[in-house]
Amino acid sequence: MNPASNNGLRTIVCLKVVPRPEEVRVDAETMTLDRAGAQSFINPPDLNALETALKLKDACGGEVSILSMGPPFFEPYLRLALAVGADRAFLLSDRAFGGADTLATTYTLAKGVEKIGAFDLVLCGEESLDGATAQVPPGLAEWLDVAQVTCALEIEKVPGKREMRVQRELKGGSETLSVDLPAVVSVKANVNEPRFIDYDRMEWALQEAPVGVWGAGDLATDPELTGLAGSPTTVAGVRQVATPDRRRKHLSGSAGEIARALADLLRTQTGSRGG
Amino acid sequence: MAASLIRPEEAQRIWVWLEHDGTSLEGVSLELLAKGRELADRSGEGLVGLLMGHELDSLADEALGYGADEIVVAEDPLLEVYTTDAWCDAAAQVVLEKKPNILLFGATPDGRDLAGRLAVRLRTGLTADCTDLEIKTDEPALMLAAEVTGFGGGVAAIIACKENRPQMATVRPGVFRPALRRSHGEEGVQSRCPVRIDPGRVRTRVLERRIGEAVDITKAEALVVGGRGVKGDFGLLETLAGLLGAELGASRVAVDEGWIEKDRMIGQTGSVTRPKVAIVCGVSGAMQFTVGIMEADTVVAINSDPEAPIFESADYCVVDDLFSILPPLIRELENSR
Description:
The complex is a heterodimer of chains A (275) and B (337). Chain A has eight helices and 15 strands. With 275 residues, chain A is α/β, with parallel strands linked by helices. The N and C termini of chain A lie far apart (77 Å). β15 of chain A pairs parallel with β15 of chain B, so a sheet runs across the interface.
């Protein structure tokens, strides 16, 4: 019998730090993304995943670990997650991990999960604001060879069993699944209200708590499977999306005059027969 | 790089995963059959539809009529309802047997769920949530160039998968026009691919499904769209939509506030629409939203904030409160019926 069914859930929350989308620019000469001027923040759906993990911990006990992959500047953001309520944090950081697509990213994250140790649940945000692929949770589940649920709306532990009950979004509806643990679950954005920083945890989280930083050597990753070298996809070109040219004609006058002008316009645009 | 399980020189044809509800094909699957046909004709490749499920006879016959050269049917009782493990096991077996060059999925909840896992099992690349597809007929030949947008829609990138096969992509619903039913005699052929699924490997079980009347705003000819400015009340917008034969749409804020169903969300995380006219009321107009109305022929924006970025993306701009403009507009349209 696995001790987790009695001693709470061992949950790992994957967290990404992303630049504010509206502040990212394309460098026209190098065809690369210029994130230098962009402020960073924790990918919002990942905070919904963290809140889900903390709620499960409130209900069943256990511990919550944070796992992220990225450059050293991510570390303070991981500490924020500790201040919110997570117990441990690990950052996978190595130049060898850079330039990874989803195949290489999910391989590296899976090695990180394995190094953290036995787990019951990995929670992720449904997608990242920058890449927006939503492909990391399924890929991670495949590397770990565990059950997967994407687009989760609600998650609860089935008492006394290594099993969760998960409500998942579908096109035009939802389904309820029974899910064997361990599992990887991606959580929809805005499914809950992430809690604020716990000020009693601040000093510990921001200064004392150790954040494990692991590189390729610590994880014993295969260099052929990480970073740019491990990525089958390549970016063949990048461009700034041009906003289509619109007429931007201002309609002015009284509300009645504007309404008449709009009505004339809509009758021609929608082909509805006018009076 | 992870060694591809399928060599480029043995990979053949463009495949589309056909999503369905047991009785009819998903709209995005028809869109992919149309785009797949275009890519196949341009490159001289064949087009194949992959239909998975249980007891699919009538659906398999139906699927033959949308331009695919072949429909490959994979059936098993464990495929009666979608579960990741059963469908991924079955799809992987078909792919390793048939060796597709390109494999396309709709970027729906199930399409993304399956493609993300299958790509890792096959050790190949997956380009997610594409907004355009092209095929290279020069060197390297038959390479897929898939366009994706990121960072809220402000940046587009072309992604290629040079060595690993199949070249996988999920495609956002609504970006291509759907395939039309072909006349009798122009249909493809049907074949079966046996699959074996180990029930012990299926680690999720569907207890209950609740599917409502799905709304598809990507097909709407006219849209009346509300955002934060409607302050929870879509009543006037609904009346206007009724008069114009339009569908209601919404910004993310309006959906997140619970004012309207999420099927109606427009933009980066919602739908890309292509109406003749969109009347956008009380939406500020961030990039994440405006990517969803870029394909509209005409955009009318009503917003009380003269600085709202939505006016940059509008053909007709009304700087006023929607609650002062919509009532007289509704009266005008009612009087002219």
